[in-house]
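Quick start: what a row looks like.
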Amino acid sequence: MNKIFEIPLYPYTRSPDQDAQTPVRRKVVVVGAGPIGLAAAIDLAQQGIEAIVLDDNDKVSFGSRAICFAKRPLEILDRLGCGQEMVDKGVVWNLGKVFFGDRKVYEFNLLPEEGHRRPAFINLQQYYFEEYLVKRARALEAEGAPIELRGQNKVLDVTDKGDHTVLRISTPDGDYTLEADWLIACDGAGSPIRAMMGLDFVGRVFEDNFLIADVVMDADFPTERWFWFDPPFNKGQSALLHKQPDGVWRIDLQLGWDIDKEKEKKPENVIPRLRAMLGEDVTFDLEWVSIYTFQCRRMEKFRHNRVIFAGDSAHQVSPFGARGANSGLQDTDNLMWKLGLVIGGTAPETLLDSYDTERIHGADENILNSSRSTDFITPKSETSRIFRDAVLDLSEQYEFARPLVNSGRLSVPCTYDGSPLNTPDALPGGPARTRPGAPCPDAPLDNGYLLGDLGCRFTLLTVDADAPDTIDEAGITVPRLALSAADDATGALAARYLGDAKSAIYLVRPDQHVAARWDTYDETATRAAIRRATGQE
């Protein structure tokens, strides 16, 4: 057993807030010290904004849980200060194989295009992810940043007071009351905060159960994603095998709907299933076992006055496609720069409405893809099963059928088409992938990579175009990052940011999404775009 599960990383200590005569008002309280809550607090602390993290636990999550992290979240984690640790520890993979019965029908390669700092995907247990985030939070705290982790602080009640919320909190030393200007609920799929406020999800619950097992073994399986439809060791169901660090392998086995979950989790029932899959000659140890039921649902709204939901507390998807933690990190990346501007008095509170608009769009996109994957993996009718099996048979020999095979469309970042923060596209011939609302793709530069130079602020990116070195508009200072297509001998910068245009100017948001773009500098248009991107127009 990995001892990281047993070590309190943010043990309970009594806070001065518990001894105050009247409830202390805090700027931002984050409920939940999982990956999404920690990322939210770190982002705020890096902006110099007070963030208090409350959790009823004091350790990292038990079991691997989320394991597959895509390039975009790794780029976000670079800005939060722990991307490199993730990549150094994680298992990088790009090859996937799909099996039908006992035969391989095809394989796919996710090898990313050249010119990106980060890989397409890594596999890494969630407990390591949380450990790195806690270490980063502690480092910021040691530097004097306004961040604090409070373990064994369980929220019992939340009251909306209009311009703040009031929380009643249980600790080993008794209850206390805390006030928060803003409350960020990152307390997971079962969100007690959501329940306290009488809110719920809308969407689908899929009638199926999957067994997840973390297995420690010294196996010679390659570093690939293997997915089986109707395998001989799990007839009529599906299975998934993924490699993690430290000789740990993730195995998912579909069990069906009408099962006794507690019985199925017992080692005497799990081990024979794994032996049937791995072979009698493979020696392994069980590290963690769980059973999950699919849900593809979300809240109708993520923002409820001064209480804002992010991650699994706001939306849920099936695990196929790695869209859970990956989308949660994009929630906080979208929200925290906006909240920072509102708290600082630069932007109106209505800017936060765009969080709802943009991230509900992202959640709906994830739910659509996740539902389609689940429907293919677990057909709901005999007709659907016949169609799926025919597609799998055809995919073995015919390339046209392979895009129809859906073992989990893997996570990609959302483009915020139609966002109220976007300025209409004004770059004739510009690449579609960098249109307003799109996340900026990375590109190699002489001194590193583009995304590292963009950082986490508004930036005016110019490619073979003139513009002022700095623009000050509506309380926002926007520095220029001046580049030339000649800065990248590979041609990636030109392909991704110029297309057929000779020059380009991009207004890039702090979350590195494109707010506006033009072929030449227009001061009036640029200033208007800055106001629009900050909810001031």
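That is the whole record. The chain has two domains: 1-313, 432-533. The domain at 432-533 is CATH 3.40.30.120 (Glutaredoxin).
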